[in-house]
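From the pipeline queue, job 12 of 40. The input is one protein chain; the requested action is below.

Action: predict structure.
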Amino acid sequence: MYNFDMTKNIRLYLEGLAPLVVISMVCYMYKDDLELLNIAMLYLLPILFTATRYGRVPTFFVSLCAALLFDILFVPPVLHLTVHDMEYLFSFIIMITVGQLVSALATKAAKTKELEAGEKLYEAVLGSLSHELRTPLAVVIGATSSLLSKELKLSDAERIELCESAFLSAKSMQELIENLLASARFESGGVKPTFSICSIDEVVGSALLRVEKKYSKEAVFKIADDLPSLNTDALLLEQAFYNILDNAFKYGNNVKVEIESSMNDLIVKVCNDGNIPRDHELSFA
C-alpha cells in the first residue's frame, strides 16, 4: 500500500508534474494547429510516465492535474473550469482510469520480477548449500555410524576422536548455513548496514583470529603504518573477510594477510600457496 505523504514524497509528484507542465506549454503554443483529441493523447504521456514509476497515488494526482489543465486550457470555454460537452467529461474519466490501470499493471510486474528474483536466489542458495554440505555431512554420518556399530571394537580414544570429528563437522555445517542465510537476507534487502567509524586492521584481525582458532593454524599478518579509518558496517565487513580467510585456510597453507594504503585506497591482500579446486571456483569467486 502506498503511503500518501506529500512532504516525504514531494519529489515523486514534482517529477510526475514536470512532463505535464512541459506538454501543457507546448500544446498551448500550438493549440491552433492541434485538435483536442491529439492534445488529449499527448496528455496521456505524463500519466503513463508516472504510472510506470511512482505508484497509484502519484498517478492519480498527475491524472487529476492533467484533466484539470486540459479542461482549463483547451476545452471551451477556455480558462474556465466547466464542461459543456459530455465527450470531454469521458476524456477526463479515461485519463484517470488509464493511469490507474497502467499503475496497477506496473506494480504487478514489479512484484512478479521480485518474486522471480527471490526464486532464483532461493535456487542458488539451495544449490550451494547442498554442494557445500556434502563433505561435513558425510563425516558426521561416517563418525556416528562407526560409534553406533556393534561390530567395531573401538577404544575410548577412538570414540572421542570420532565424536570430535562429528562435532567439528556439525559446527562447520552450522557456520555454512548461517553464512548462506545471512547472504540471502543481505541480497534480498533484509539486512540494513549500520555505518560507523572503525579500523580496518581490527576488523581483519578479528576475522583472522576466528579462522586461526577454527583451523588451529596461524597466518602471517602484516599491517602498514598510518592506515586511514573506515566508515562502514564493521560486522558485515568482518564476516566478508572471515569467508575469504576461511577459503584461504581451507584450500592452502602458509596464509599471509597484508594491509596497506595507497593514496585514498585501502588494500588487503590474502595469499596462500594452495589452489582452488575446480568444482569450488565459482563459489569461491
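Job complete. DSSP finds nine helices and five strands in the chain.
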